[in-house]
Task: inverse folding
């Protein structure tokens, strides 16, 4: 079971790039890495997913080194509305067994 | 857009009551999940289901059971609610396995008195 570790909180300012790192030392060969964003009183929302190297979409980039023991979510030019909790999840597409672990989440505060 | 709905946003129950939390998804997803979320503990998986009538225990299944009679509906049951089950309960669904993007409902905040 791949345990994940994230910083508890981070502060940033509007317009800056924010990088949040997640450690997952026991990641398995079939595991994917997925990041979610959660606002207060809402369910988490999918941001990005990757397996290795770099993935980019319209809201974020995900960097995964060759050993896959960590991953970094990069948010370009954050705004106040990016203030939220960000979760890293490591899991597999297989259906059998318990192969899901959410990290404790990183509370990002974006200041004006 | 995937839509996951939960039967209640807020629920107040008494200790010992049987509690049903219902979740419905409209995207024909194979997998459905129940999590609870508590301050400082993040999201913890209670149960998930990968097919009708199929279920797997998550990290904290004690005190809970689940039912999936139809593909679109996944129910979480607290057989005898206790105060330590006061929490936010989140349902999610995904098309393929647990590692794929999950779509979450708005959550049910349950208070057990």
Result:
């Amino acid at each position: 079971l791949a345990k994940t570790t994230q910083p508890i909180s981070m502060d940033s300012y509007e317009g800056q790039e924010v990088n949040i790192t997640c450690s997952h030392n026991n990641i398995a060969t079939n595991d994917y890495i997925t990041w979610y964003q959660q606002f207060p009183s809402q369910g988490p929302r999918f941001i990005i997913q990757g397996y290795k190297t770099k993935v980019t979409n319209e809201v974020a980039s995900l960097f995964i080194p060759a050993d896959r023991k960590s991953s970094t979510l990069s948010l370009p030019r954050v705004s106040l509305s990016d203030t939220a909790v960000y979760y890293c999840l490591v899991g597999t597409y297989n259906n059998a067994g318990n192969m899901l672990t959410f990290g404790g989440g990183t509370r990002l505060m974006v200041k004006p | 857009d995937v839509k996951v709905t939960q039967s209640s946003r807020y629920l107040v129950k008494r200790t010992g009551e049987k509690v049903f939390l219902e979740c419905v998804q409209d995207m024909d997803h194979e997998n459905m999940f129940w999590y609870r979320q508590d301050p400082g503990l993040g999201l913890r998986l209670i149960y998930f289901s990968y097919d009708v009538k199929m279920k797997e225990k998550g990290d904290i299944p004690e005190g809970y059971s689940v039912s999936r009679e139809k593909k679109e509906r996944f129910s979480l049951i607290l057989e005898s609610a206790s105060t330590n089950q006061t929490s936010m309960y989140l349902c999610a669904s995904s098309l393929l396995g647990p590692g794929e993007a999950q779509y979450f409902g708005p959550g049910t905040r349950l208070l057990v008195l």
About this structure: The longest strand of chain B covers residues 42-51. Chain B touches chain A through 33 residues (CB under 8 Å). DSSP finds no helices and eleven strands in chain B.
